[in-house]
Amino acid sequence: MSNEHKNKDYTLSISILMSAVILAGAWIYTAGLKSGQGGQAQVKSQTKAEVVTSALEEKILPSAGVALPVKWDDIGKRMVKNGVIDFQKLEAIYANRGGMEADTKTLLQKSDNGSITMTSQNSGEILNLLWAFGLANKNPILENGPMMTYSGAGLPADSAFVAEATSAKEAALAKARNFASTGGWTIAVGDPMSHYSVHQLVTLTADQQALVESISKNIYRPCCGNSVYFPDCNHGMAMLGLLELMASQGVSEDEMYKIALAVNSYWFPDTYLTIAKYLKNNGIEWDSIEPKTILGESYSSAQGYARIQSLVAPEPSTQSQGGCGVDTGQVAQPQQQQSGCGVQ
Fold first, then answer.
1. Are residues 8 and 151 in the same domain?
2. Closest CA to 226 of 303, 155, 151
């Protein structure tokens, strides 16, 4: 009888143990399954996010590029002839970077150039050409605008030039020489200020000039807090040049804003991808908002972009943002000439 009880107790213990093992195995399997499903869901979520980002990139930075609605003609060749661009200096810079693009050479050497197509690959070289044009083309914005009326004393190196000035205009020019857009242009023949608003590369009518001034006051860049009307860095001067070119060839105001946004996006890719993500997070598609709005102070200035950036998860960097030197990858109040803002 005693042995029977012992056998029953033993059998019961074995049954309980087996049940526990089965339950534990089932729990481990279920947990593993859920974990696997969670991992798969996470991968799917990441893949979806990557697809969305890739689609945004293609929309904002089309791989085929953007055709600028202007004929370049012989402008590059004239800038080389006038000494605005020292071709040998520019070529030497690119020799250390794999060589100048063949199309860029054509824009500097030929007389019958058509429109320019800007891409992620050539955006830096086109920036330099437009910078040279904006600096050299004779325009009232450079002669009477903030570049001349800015009240800052400039860098100490200005003092000698200011002291030697024989007029208020000469004194203003002496101070203006140390902005990144002027002193940073080190690939001219001679002093870059000897080309500042000197060459009549294109001529604007009164209406075209008024249009350029109006638009330039509403286009900002994330490297500083100034509008294109105060072109104190290379991007501002290049954009001013582009606006002058477009206006001189009869491009409409809406198209000028559209092209300006496309160009700014190539120069500051991470900035505009972040802005697009911010808009999308708020239910606004990139195509549904006016380029004029995005280019304004609330989005495209250094202050406006900083606010937006603080509200958006950081994007992986796609490529270097535009710098303040000749086709550099470095980011340079007002933009006085400084380390990182010259030819690198």
1. no
2. 303
Query: Quick check: 125 and 116 in contact, CB under 8 A?
Result: no
The b-or-e profile of 14-29 (16+ CB within 10 A means b, else e) is eeeeeeeeeeeeeeee
Q: What is the DSSP code (8-state) at residue 137? A: B
Same domain, 48 and 150: no
How many residues are present in the chain? 344
Per-residue pLDDT of the chain (344 residues; tens, 9 = 90+): 555 554 555 554 555 555 554 555 545 455 554 555 555 545 444 454 455 568 889 999 999 999 999 999 999 999 999 999 999 999 999 998 899 999 999 999 999 999 999 999 999 999 999 999 999 999 999 999 999 988 664 554 455 566 666 777 787 888 888 899 999 999 999 999 999 999 999 999 999 999 999 999 999 999 988 999 999 999 999 999 999 999 999 999 999 999 999 999 999 999 999 999 999 999 999 999 999 999 999 999 999 999 999 999 765 555 545 555 665 433 334 454 433 343 43
Alpha carbon of residue 196 to chain centroid: 24
Q: What's the sign of the alpha-carbon dihedral 262, 332, 194, 177?
A: positive
In a shared domain, residues 267 and 124: yes
The verdict on 156 and 8 lying in the same domain is no
- Reported as half-sphere exposure (CB side, CA atoms, 13 A), residue 178 has a value of 21
Tell me which amino acid residue 263 is: V
In a domain, 338, yes or no: no
In a domain, 151, yes or no: yes
What range defines the domain where residue 179 resides? 66-309
What is the token pair recorded at 197?
């608003």
- At residue 322, φ and ψ (nearest 5 deg) are -65, 140
Residue 323 domain flag: no
Number of domains in the chain: 2
Identify whether residues 55 and 93 lie together within a single domain. no
- Count of beta carbons in the 10 Å neighbourhood of residue 31: 10
Please name the residue that has the structure tokens 């794999």: 98
